[in-house]
Amino acid sequence: MNTNKSILNELNDRTREVFRRVVEGYLETGEPVGSRTLTRLMNEKVSAATVRNVMQDLEYMGLLDSPHVSAGRVPTQQGLRMFVDGLLEVGDLASDDREKIDATIGNGGDVGAILDRIGSALSFATRGASLVLAPKHEAPIKHIEFVGLGHDRALVVLVFADGHVENRIFNPPPGQTPSSMREAANFLNSLMAGRTLSDLKTVVSREIDAKKQQIDGLSRALVESGLAVWDGEGETYERLIVRGRSNLLDSEESDLDRIRVLFDDLERKRDIAEFLNLTEGGEGVRIFIGSENKLFSLSGSSLVVSPYMNADRKIIGAVGVIGPTRLNYGRIVPIVDYTAQLVGRMISDRR
């Protein structure tokens, strides 16, 4: 990003204006922008030939591209990235967009139902596909128990302080006995003290190292194996809610093969955790364009995503909008930002 900003600063005023107007024209219409169009929009009076020379320079720099059937220019992925980093003007959230999103909370229901409605409202407001990553249950834990189901299967039962119960079947280490299972459960229950599961994982690894003499090898292996059930691939978060896929197919620049790849990516359970990893840069909205988007790199799509946090300021999920690279970023960014903050407050208020 810093490199893009430095390149932008090196452009003179005329070149910067040509670049900005090409990108803005493309984002608005989806069509290449020609030199004759630009001469009517420029702040200073310049000839079409002068504008064409500037566009050729920008193309040489890798910021614009010329489709083979048109004399106009469109921004490249690098050009869009530079525009987003240095020239994008983010507007205020429109009152009607705010009202649509707020209305999803007021209808009541459990968290899952509300997140479903939020996803639909977000898709409707942005005319893209919405993504909502629902958090796992994060209430404090009251009790944990291991139950043997055979020589190669065991059940871990997790009881939360709010009455929620989760059961998971897993493959325990060989050699487990009823005694080692009781010892493992007792060890974990002694550490609960109102902690959430994510808190408990951190404490357990530290305590195992500190108290290796107090918990035998079998019990220690069972503890690590049992807790890993909640930390396995594709199991870190409950579900990825996707709404508005048809909006992607309605896009003028839709490439059905690429959209099909995108849908396949969305269906792959193992990629859900990666969606949240995209937000690791901290608070606020992040924009991923084309191949920058690790989860949907093959589909040539753009993703506008923001994490949401619980009352303890921990990132527990994310909301986003996915669509073609020709998104109205200036309008969508405040919508995603507001939605993420709203979801975070809703989750915190229900703890």
UniProtKB/TrEMBL annotation:
Keywords associated with the record: Repressor, Stress response, Transcription, Transcription regulation
InterPro entries: GAF-like_dom_sf (IPR029016), HrcA (IPR002571), HrcA_C (IPR021153), WH-like_DNA-bd_sf (IPR036388), WH_DNA-bd_sf (IPR036390), WHTH_HrcA_DNA-bd (IPR005104), WHTH_transcript_rep_HrcA_IDD (IPR023120)
Domain of life: Bacteria
Domain Heat-inducible transcription repressor HrcA C-terminal intervals: 114-333
Limits of the Winged helix-turn-helix transcription repressor HrcA DNA-binding domain: 11-78
GO molecular function, one term: DNA binding
Pfam families (UniProt xref): HrcA (PF01628), WHD_HrcA (PF03444)
GO biological process terms held by the UniProt record: negative regulation of DNA-templated transcription
Chain's role: Negative regulator of class I heat shock genes (grpE-dnaK-dnaJ and groELS operons). Prevents heat-shock induction of these operons.
Family recorded in the similarity comment: Belongs to the HrcA family.
Protein name, as recorded: Heat-inducible transcription repressor HrcA
Organism: Pseudooceanicola spongiae
